[in-house]
Amino acid sequence: MYLLAKDTVNGAEGKxxxxxxxxxxxxAGMTNIYTYADIQGKEMRVVGTxxxxxxxxxxxxxxxxxxxxxxDIWRDMVLExxxxxxxxxxxxxxxxxDASNTIGSQSIAYYGCELTGSIPLSILDSExxxxxxxxxxxxxxxxxxRSFNEPASYGG
Length: 156
Prior knowledge:
- There is one protein chain.
- By secondary structure, the protein is mainly β.
- It is about 10% helix and about 50% strand.
- It is built from one helix and eight strands.
- Strands 1, 2, 3, 4, 5, 6, 7 and 8 form an eight-stranded antiparallel beta sheet that branches.
């Protein structure tokens, strides 16, 4: 039994929606977005075995994305922080929805997001025909809103 190619997910099919101050904003111009749950752990050694065990003790929740320059959503948050001292939080919903497969769509929400790292306020670059930039963020909670279905059929 194996997964059929028709049931793989096209990475360009989907959408990113930001909720900020109760307003839903579908973000255009994203080239990619990734979220991570980095499980933190502590190694444990005991006498009587050479085995090194690991005990999970937390999770670091981060994300990163790349967007074409010209969308002000992230820049406006940075300017708000610079001008008021208040770092805005936002919620993010990422949906994979490739209509060409039989597994349907998946939608995951990330809550309590905050930008981290460097966000360009202005860019000029004579070497770039299409300006873009990367951004990073953290989140405090995550929830799966919709899961993929099992494929309609398998190969084999």
